Amino acid sequence: MSVRLVSMIDQIGQSLSMNTAAAALFVDFSSAFNQLWFNGLWLKLNKLNCPLYIIAWLKHYLCGRKAYIDIKSTISSTFELSKGVPQGSCIDPVLFIVYHHDLLESLSTIHWKHLFADDLAVSIAPSAALSPKKIIKSLKKQLVQILKRLIKYSTQWKQPINYDKTYWTLFNRQGNPKIPTIKCKGHKIEHLNQIKYLGTILDAKLSFTVHLDYIKSKI
């Protein structure tokens, strides 16, 4: 976890040190572990040349589980689950990462991608040769492109994105640029001036002042 965090901070810091800006997209998947699609998992494990006996064991472990819905003592008939891993199992994050091993590959190679369990963050750094206005336009364009690829991936592999908890942040130390509106396929992505990522509060200037104040308040 710390390696992912330090790596991302370093990448954003490099952009800021060159007097340019950077952006980061923080993606939340809806009920991530509950949405893991079994048929998609078997397909990807086969593509990874996973031994058949391991796939057979996982099928025995995951398949055949049943559930029902209880609403105010009104109980539905039982149904068999076709997705989702058992809650609290130590294998949950492992299966999630294996299932989404190709998620990062589906995004552009020019961006930095960080996936820790079900936390996905993508950082973007434009060319330092661009003017301030063109930098913001470039970041917006790249964010929309990333979102399009994510939506395509999430639709294909039945891993819905929670747009209400997906955010983006513009990191910048040069004045107060106009924050663009990021929309993709009818979904508006909220901009935050600061965000908590893997336990650390990242502010727009990457000063860590907000995070240090938060730590001091806990002492």
TrEMBL record:
InterPro entries: RT_dom. Residues 1-202 form the Reverse transcriptase domain. Pfam families: RVT_1. PANTHER family: REVERSE TRANSCRIPTASE DOMAIN-CONTAINING PROTEIN. This is Reverse transcriptase domain-containing protein. It comes from Adineta steineri. The lineage of its organism: Eukaryota, Metazoa, Spiralia, Gnathifera, Rotifera.
